[in-house]
UniProtKB/TrEMBL annotation:
It comes from the Eukaryota. Gene3D superfamilies: 1.10.287.70. Coiled coil: none annotated. The lineage of its organism: Eukaryota, Cryptophyceae, Cryptomonadales, Cryptomonadaceae, Cryptomonas. PANTHER family: POTASSIUM VOLTAGE-GATED CHANNEL PROTEIN EAG, VOLTAGE AND LIGAND GATED POTASSIUM CHANNEL. Its main location: membrane. Keywords: Membrane, Transmembrane, Transmembrane helix. This is Ion transport domain-containing protein. It comes from Cryptomonas curvata.
Amino acid sequence: GLTFGVFLALVCDVLDGRKPASMRQDMVLLPVDPNGTPKRYWDLLILILLVYCIFSVPFQLAFDNSSGPFAWTPFSVFTLAVDCIFMADILVNCVTSFTDEDGATVTDLRRAAAHYARTWCVWDIAGSVPFDTIMRLVSDSSDQSQDQSRSLRAIKAIRALKLIKAAKLAAVLQGIERNEVFANLRTSIRVFKSMLILVSSAHFLGCGFLLLTQLGGAEDEGGTNWLEHYSPGASERSVEFQYVIALYWAIVSVSTMGYGDVLPVTHAERIFAVCVAVSGAVVFSFCMSNIAAVMAASDGVGTRFEKFLKRSMDHCALRKLPRGLVSDVRQHLYSNMRRCGIQADEEALLRGLSGPLQRDVWAEIYRRAEVSRSLSHRSRLARAGLARSAGRDTGGP
């Protein structure tokens, strides 16, 4: 009969196929698996901080005019913490495995570090190390009679290095998009990527337009600039007021609407406006075409499914199947194929993979088939033993 020991042995046999591999994956710390759960959530944290940086750095360039000694404020402490996380990300990337040109996973730490040094290492260091904070800390002990305007320009130029992190944002988003954990969010991630490019471009250009009002010689013969021309006395008003005007101008320019109520009045502002008009048209067209392509691809999957469902229902009608069975078939198609999409041919899919990946996939399929076959055989034996035990308890044959 089916005893408790037999049941435990059955469960252990089923779990034996995957327990050692999962335990080894959890126990191995180095090299870092780029598809592992810890790395996925680490990349998500880096993504959030990168989005924060591409919005905060241009804002600081446009509005932060402090060039004196470094002050320990909650904002400065938070900024230093963000920089420390980015520097920790450099160390993590040095020990993260990667996929080479042949599709094989490289786990050697030296090769992983060399690969990272050839790709993102220099750019990450330039955008992560807080050179502007270091410069202000060093200036605490220097001569306080130094030229404040020159110091301010130097700090802003060094701070602009952090904008290099914006280039890393696309790579991080691409890595998150490829992860299985976020597979159901790929369409949303692609739409978010296009909207982020559009909004961040408008934010960056608006802050740049405001920065022009602070540069030397940024006023015309009448002693005014675009901000004062639009709203006299605006330079003395709040930061929020100035930023909203600049962001409004940038969005109108990027979206190619161009209402014309905010106008450049100096030569430098006109040159900047021309560059914004040209680049804005490209950015807006690129983002809108990407969103349209994502929506069309998503709708294409639904259209193919509806065609397949109609053929299936026509076949059921041709065979005059019972209404209840037809309902079960429709429910099965909606719950499985609608969620997973139309399944591609397995052999064609595997032919597109590299040799090592093909072997790994076939080995996993074979292992699961063996476990399933063993489970089915043991289940039949267990049911037979349970039936015999029930027959003896009831006095049956």
